[in-house]
Amino acid sequence: MMRMRPARKWYSTLGAGVVALCLGGGPSALLAQDSPPRTAFVIVAGVGGEPRLREAFHGWAVAVAQAATTRFGVPDSLVVLLAEDSSRARVQGRSTRENVMRHIARLAGSSRAGDRLVILLFGHGSTQGTDSRFNVPGPDLTPEDFRTVLAPAREVSVIFVNTTSASGDFVKVLAGPNRTIITATRSGREQNETLFPGHFVAALTTDSADADKDGRVNLLEAFTYARREVERVFAQDNRIVTEHALLDDDGDGVGHSDASEKGPDGLRARAAFLEPAGGAAVAADPRAAELLAARRAVEGRIEALRARRGSLTEDAYQRALEPLMVELAEATRALRALEGKKP
C-alpha cells in the first residue's frame, strides 16, 4: 500500500484550494481555473420482443435516466433516453441506429477535454456470422458503429456498458485509452437472456453495492456487485452459468470478470463515481457546490493520470498520484462533515 506523506509545499494549486475550503475559507480561484468535468448519458432500450422483456428493458432504462438527474445531479439536457416506443414518458426518440449514433455524436462533439460520456445499452444482443449486434428497430448496431462514432472523443472519458446477451465482443473493439468497457457476457456465443442488467441497475440506483460504505458507488463496485449477484442466482438455482460479465479499463481489449483495483483491470473503474460525494441531497446544497466542484476536478485529474500510467515509470506515477489522493481525501472529509450537519 502506498505510504502517505504529510501534505506540505508540494500541494498543487487545486490542493491549496481544497484545503482553504475545508478550513472555511472563501470561494477558491480554482473554480475559475478548472471548471468541473461534465457527465452526459445516452441510455438505449432496444427491441424487446415479448412484452415481459420489453417492459424490463424500458424500466431499467428509465430507472437509470431518473438516477442520472436525481441521484447523480446530471442536467436533463445531458441525459438522452431512447427506446423502442418513443411515445412513452421521458423517451426522447426511437432507439434506431440513426438516432443512437446522432445523439452520441452530438454529445461527444460538444464535450470538452475531461468530460465524461456514459452509454448504457439494454435489450437483446445477437451474432451474425462472427459479428456481434445490438438489436434495435431497423438496422442493428455493431461494435464498429460505436467505434466510429466515438473515434473523435479522444479526450473524453467514455463509460460504455452493454448489458445484453452476446455482448462480450464489444470489449476488444471499443477498448482504448480513457475508456471503461463493461459487457454482460464474455463472448458473442453467450446468447441466453442475461441477468446482469437488473443487478447492475440496482447497483447504480440503490446503496446495495457500496462495499466500502463511503456513501457512493464507484463503477468497479457496481460491476462487482452485479457479477456476484448473477453468480449467486445461478448457484442458488443449481444451474450452469451462461453469462460471464467483463470489464476492461486498461485499454488492452482483454476484459476480466475478476477485475479489481489490483489490476490488470479495475483501477480506472474504482475511481469512476457517477454519484457526487454525499449523495444528491448534499449535491443540491449551495454550501456544498464548491467542494463538489473541487472533488470532481480532482477525480477527473486522477482518471487522466491513470489513463497515462502506461507511459510513466511506476515511481513517477506514484509521485504524481500521491498529492491527488490527499486532495481527494480532504474534499471527501469536508463533504462528509457537511452531510453530518444536515438535519
Query: What kind of sheet is the major sheet?
Result: 7 strands, mixed
Q: How would you write the strand order of the largest sheet?
A: 3-2-1-4-7-8-9
Instruction: Identify the CATH architecture of the largest domain.
Output: 3-Layer(aba) Sandwich
Distance between the termini: 37 Å
Q: Give me the Rg, rounded.
A: 20 Å
Task: Report the β-strand fraction as a percent range.
Answer: 5-15%
Number of domains: 2
The overall average pLDDT, rounded, is 83
Tally of DSSP β-strands: 9
| Helix percentage | 40-55%
Oligomerization status of the protein chains: single chain
Textual characterization of the structure:
The chain has two domains: 39-270, Rossmann fold; 286-335. α6 (170-174) links the parallel β7 (157-162) and β8 (179-183). Helix content is 42%, strand content 13%. The longest helix is centred in the C-terminal third of the chain and has 27 residues, at 314-340. It is of the alpha/beta class. The chain has helices at residues 13-22, 30-33, 51-70, 97-109, 143-150, 170-174, 196-205, 219-236, 267-270, 279-283, 289-307, 314-340, and strands spanning 39-45, 79-83, 93-94, 116-122, 125-128, 131-134, 157-162, 179-183, 246-248. Strands 3-2-1-4-7-8-9 form a seven-stranded mixed sheet, with helices on both faces. Strands 5-6 form a two-stranded antiparallel sheet. The protein contains twelve helices and nine strands. Mean pLDDT is 83; it is low at 1-34.
